[in-house]
Specification:
single chain, mainly alpha, 27% helix
């Protein structure tokens, strides 16, 4: 403890020079801080403050062993998108269509003149849409199994046996 108070006193003297306060105030402040830091060190380090506490602490002590566990979660992310559109293509189609026409047959004979109207079929082309196919669009979910790996830490207890020490270990794994 005296080491902490001495270090605190020196730090207090330095503070008195920096903060422009009297040396006595800095010395007192540093000594108080050294004592407080010693008490805090003893409190958080688990070291006993007195020999009596030291004797009572050596009977039963507990070391907590911890290990890490992996937490696995899933998030949906967009992996891409699909664009579906129609395109119109043109191609030349050729059809063979029989057409009829009338023709005049004149046979020699009478010299009379006849006028007979002649007719023929004309081809007319018109277009109209006809459904030839349907494209169906849908989404489906596929479930796959994936293995994930991660490193985890695990604490283990190591027991060092010194000469003459009698150690009894229950069902604990130790090294």
């Amino acid at each position: 403890m005296s080491k902490y108070i001495l270090i605190g006193a020196v730090i207090g003297l330095v503070f008195s020079l920096v903060l422009n306060i009297s040396l006595l105030e800095g010395l007192f402040l540093g000594t108080a801080l050294g004592g407080i830091s010693y008490k805090l060190y003893r409190l958080y380090s688990g070291e006993p403050n007195t020999p009596k506490e030291e004797a009572s602490q050596t009977k039963n002590q507990t070391i907590r062993l911890k290990e890490e566990q992996l937490d696995i979660s899933k998030n949906q992310v967009q992996t891409g998108d699909i664009k579906v559109h129609k395109e119109v293509s043109e191609q030349q189609k050729t059809f063979t269509v029989p057409i009829r026409r009338e023709e005049m047959v004149v046979e020699a004979g009478d010299e009379e003149e006849f006028r007979i109207p002649l007719k023929e079929e004309e081809i007319e082309i018109s277009k109209h849409p006809v459904k030839v196919n349907e494209v169906s669009l849908s989404k489906r979910e596929i479930e796959e199994i994936e293995q994930v790996k991660g490193m985890v830490k695990k604490e283990k207890a190591y027991i060092e046996k010194k000469e003459g020490a009698d150690v009894k270990v229950n069902d604990m794994e130790y090294y």
